[in-house]
C-alpha cells in the first residue's frame, strides 16, 4: 500500500483511496478508542467520527507519521465523546441473556482457545485493567494506552498528542505508578507464572 | 508501596529506562543507582510487571468497517465549516451590539439626568439665595413648625406631610392673619429639604411669567377642596416672592397665613390628600396677579429663557442617540437570531 499516494488521491476527493487508509488503520483506531472509553458503542462512534474528521481535515495533514495523525483524530474524538458522556451520563449496559438476566461474564467475549477457567481469568484481568485505566486522568490514559497497549514509541505519541517528549515521559511514568497501585487491588488476577513468562519474553 | 522513597524524577527515569528511552549517560546513572539500592530494583521490577500486564491486553479488532460512504461525506462536506466559522462571529457581533446598546441607553439616561439637574440647579439657585435671606427672620421656626405638625388636627400620618399641608395651603387656609412673628412660609419650606423646595420657585416663575407663558399651568384643574384658595388670590404671590428685595414688606403678611395653617382644621384636612398641594393653589392664580411686581417678572424671565435654551441645546445629543439605539437594537436582534439559527444546526 502506497500510503503517500493514497493520501494524495484522497486529498483530490478520491473517497475509495481514503477508505483504503481507513481499512488499514481502523483496528488500531478502534482499539485505542475502546481502551480510552472502555465501551464498545462509544468506541465505535468515536472511531467513525475520527475518520470523518480525518477526511474533512485531510488538508491539515502536513506529512510525518500518518498513523500518529490518525491517532490524534481518534484521541480528539474520544475526548469529545467523554465530554458528551459527562453531559449525559448513562449506565453502562451489561450483555443480557434471553430472559433479560444480565450475564456476569459473557462467554462470547472470551477467546475460543482458552479453557473456561482461563477464559474467565483472562476476562477478569482485562476488566481489572480496564477499570484501572478508566480511573486515570484523560491525558495520562491517552499516553499509557498509546505506549503500553498500542505499542507506539515516545516520538509517535508526542506527534499524536502534540505534546513534547518530556511531557510524554512524565505522564507515562505517573500513569504507570497509578496503574501499579490500582492493579495491586487485583493481585489474585496477576499470577506469578504470567508475569515471569511475560518478562522472559521481553 | 515502596515507591514513596522515589522522587518523581527518579520514577520517571526508571520508567524511561524500562522503555530504553534514556541517553547513554542517563542510563549509566540509573544502573549505578540500581546496583546501590535494592528497593530501586524492586520498583523497577514492579514497573516491569505493570507494563507487561498492560501489554497483555488483547487487541480489539474493529467490529465493523468504518469506511466512509458518499452520503456521509456529503453530509459534512461544505456545509459544516461555514456555520462553525460563522456562529462565533454572529455570537460576538450580537454580544457587542447588545453591549453598545446598553451603553448608549445608559448614556442617553445620563444626559437626560444631567439636563434635568442643570435645569433644576439653575432654578434652585435663586431659591437658595431667597431662603438664606429669609432664614435670618427666625431660626427656631423650623423646629416650632415641626412641633406644630403633630399637634395639627389634620389627619397627617407623617410630620413631613403635615408641614406641607400647613405651609402651602396656608393662603387658602385663611385670610385671617394673626401673628406676624410666627413662621414665614419660606421657613417651612426650608425645614423640608425635599422637592417642595423647588416648587415655590417654579410657582414664582409661573406667577411672574407673562400670561402667554403661564397658559399651560392654568390648564391644571384645581381640586375641589381648593376653592377657598381662589377666593383670596392676592396674598399668594406674596407668599412665594417675599424674599425678593422689592417684595420686602410682604413677608410679614405672607408669613401669617402659613402659620395660620395649623390651627384651622377644615382647610388642613382638605389639603392633605391632594398629591401636589404646592402647585395647585398657584395654578389657580391668574398670571395677571403677578403683574404688580414688574421687578420679579424681569428677574424670572431671563432664567426661564436660559433653561429653555439649555433644554433645546441639550436635546440634540439625545436626538442623535435615539436612532443609534434603534440601529444597535436591530443589529443585536438580527445577529442574535442568526447565531441561534447557526447554533441549532446539527453538529458533525
Characterization of this structure:
The complex is a heterodimer of chains A (202) and B (348). Helix content of chain A is 69%, strand content 0%. Chain A contains nine helices and no strands. In chain A, helix 2 packs antiparallel against helix 3, helix 5 crosses helix 8 and helix 7 packs across helix 8. The C terminus of chain A is likely disordered. In chain B, 67% of the residues lie in helices and 0% in strands. In chain B, helix 5 packs antiparallel against helix 17, helix 6 crosses helix 9 and helix 10 packs across helix 17. The radius of gyration of chain B is 43 Å and the shape is elongated. Chain B starts with 7 loop residues before the first helix and ends in a 5-residue tail after the last helix. About 47% of the residues of chain B have low confidence. Classes of the chains: A mainly alpha (202), B mainly alpha (348). Chains A and B meet through helix 2, helix 3, helix 5, helix 6 and helix 8 of A and helix 1, helix 3 and helix 4 of B.
Amino acid at each position: 500500500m502506497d500510503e503517500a499516494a493514497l493520501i494524495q488521491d484522497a486529498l483530490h476527493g478520491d473517497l475509495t483511496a481514503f477508505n483504503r487508509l481507513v481499512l488499514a488503520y481502523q483496528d488500531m483506531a478502534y482499539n485505542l478508542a475502546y481502551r480510552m472509553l472502555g465501551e464498545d458503542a462509544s468506541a465505535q462512534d468515536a472511531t467513525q467520527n475520527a475518520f470523518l474528521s480525518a477526511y474533512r481535515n485531510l488538508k491539515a495533514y502536513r506529512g510525518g507519521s500518518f498513523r500518529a495523525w490518525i491517532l490524534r483524530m481518534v484521541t480528539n474524538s474520544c475526548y469529545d465523546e467523554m465530554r458528551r458522556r459527562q453531559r449525559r451520563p448513562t449506565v453502562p449496559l451489561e450483555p443480557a441473556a434471553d430472559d433479560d438476566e444480565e450475564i456476569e461474564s459473557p462467554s462470547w467475549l472470551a477467546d475460543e482457545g482458552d479453557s473456561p477457567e482461563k477464559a474467565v481469568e483472562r476476562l477478569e484481568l482485562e476488566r481489572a485493567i480496564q477499570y484501572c485505566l478508566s480511573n486515570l486522568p484523560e491525558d495520562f490514559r491517552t499516553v499509557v494506552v498509546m505506549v503500553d497497549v498500542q505499542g507506539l514509541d515516545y516520538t509517535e505519541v508526542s506527534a499524536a498528542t502534540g505534546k513534547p517528549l518530556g511531557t510524554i515521559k512524565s505522564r507515562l511514568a505517573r500513569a504507570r505508578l497509578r496503574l501499579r497501585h490500582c492493579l495491586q487491588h487485583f493481585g489474585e488476577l496477576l499470577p506469578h507464572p504470567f508475569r515471569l513468562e511475560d518478562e522472559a519474553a521481553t | 508501596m515502596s515507591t514513596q522513597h522515589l522522587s518523581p524524577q527518579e520514577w520517571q527515569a526508571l520508567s524511561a529506562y524500562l522503555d530504553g528511552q534514556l541517553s547513554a549517560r542517563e542510563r549509566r546513572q540509573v544502573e549505578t543507582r540500581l546496583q546501590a539500592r535494592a528497593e530501586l530494583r524492586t520498583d523497577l521490577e514492579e514497573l516491569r510487571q505493570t507494563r507487561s500486564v498492560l501489554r497483555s491486553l488483547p487487541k480489539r479488532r474493529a467490529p465493523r468497517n468504518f469506511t466512509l460512504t458518499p452520503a456521509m461525506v456529503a453530509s459534512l462536506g461544505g456545509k459544516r465549516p461555514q456555520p462553525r466559522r460563522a456562529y462565533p462571529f454572529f455570537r460576538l457581533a450580537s454580544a457587542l451590539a447588545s453591549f453598545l446598546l446598553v451603553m448608549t441607553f445608559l448614556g442617553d439616561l445620563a444626559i437626560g439626568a444631567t439636563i434635568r439637574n442643570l435645569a433644576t440647579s439653575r432654578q434652585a439657585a435663586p431659591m437658595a439665595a431667597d431662603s438664606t435671606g429669609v432664614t435670618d427672620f427666625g431660626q427656631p421656626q423650623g423646629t416650632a413648625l415641626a412641633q406644630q405638625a403633630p399637634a395639627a388636627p389634620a389627619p397627617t400620618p407623617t410630620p413631613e406631610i403635615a408641614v406641607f399641608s400647613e405651609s402651602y395651603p396656608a393662603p387658602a387656609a385663611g385670610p385671617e392673619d394673626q401673628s406676624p412673628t410666627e413662621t414665614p412660609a419660606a421657613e417651612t419650606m426650608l425645614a423640608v429639604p425635599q422637592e417642595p423646595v423647588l416648587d415655590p420657585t417654579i410657582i414664582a416663575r409661573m406667577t411672574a411669567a407673562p400670561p402667554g407663558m403661564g397658559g399651560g399651568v392654568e390648564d391644571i384643574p384645581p381640586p375641589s377642596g381648593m376653592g377657598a384658595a381662589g377666593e383670596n388670590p392676592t396674598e399668594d404671590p406674596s407668599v412665594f416672592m417675599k424674599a425678593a428685595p422689592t417684595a420686602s414688606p410682604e413677608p410679614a403678611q405672607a408669613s401669617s397665613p402659613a402659620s395660620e395653617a395649623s390651627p384651622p382644621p377644615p382647610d388642613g384636612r382638605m389639603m392633605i390628600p391632594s398629591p401636589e398641594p404646592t402647585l395647585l393653589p398657584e395654578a389657580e392664580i391668574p398670571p395677571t396677579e403677578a403683574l404688580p411686581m414688574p421687578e420679579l417678572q424681569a428677574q424670572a424671565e431671563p432664567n426661564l429663557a436660559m433653561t429653555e435654551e439649555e433644554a433645546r441645546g441639550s436635546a440634540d445629543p439625545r436626538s442623535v442617540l435615539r436612532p443609534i439605539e434603534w440601529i444597535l437594537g436591530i443589529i443585536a436582534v438580527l445577529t442574535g437570531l442568526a447565531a441561534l439559527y447557526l447554533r441549532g444546526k446539527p453538529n458533525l
